[in-house]
Design goal:
Helices cover about 55% and strands about 0% of the residues. It folds into two domains: about 90 residues, no CATH class; about 30 residues, no CATH class. The protein contains four helices and two strands; from the N terminus they run αααβαβ.
Amino acid sequence: MGFRCFTIVMLTSACTLGCASISDYRYNCVNKQRAKAAWKEAKACLPEDKHCSDFAKGYQAGYLDVSRNGDGSPPPVPPSCYWGPDYQTAEGLCLVSKWYEGFSKGACDAMSHGRNHWHNLPSHASQCYAGCVANEAGQSATSFGEVQYLQPFHPVSNVPRAP
């Protein structure tokens, strides 16, 4: 009887979560595992002073950021675990600095591993658009046998707006 109740609870939970939630959870888990694996690989090539846990946390956060389609820019403030009074000292600021160093290294490694290129979407519309642009420029139209990709949209804040 216990197994039957467990099965019903699990099926009910799966139905209420929805596919998107399960897919999102899996996406996050896979990317976290990739970040951990990349850290283990990178750690072997780094000098001993970079082996601290704060550098490792930053490295994995940077790798994860790029893997999730971030641009690799470090956040303006460190994670909340670095906000306490222990980090409001010279030693604490050094640890925060190690986290930021790790973030930058992790983001750079993720880009060199191609993690930032897994977010492009193939689109038939992009082929049509490219063909139209090519024709307007006097070039030959793009054949529909080629696959082109849409790049993620990153808004530009310094573009002047129309009055």
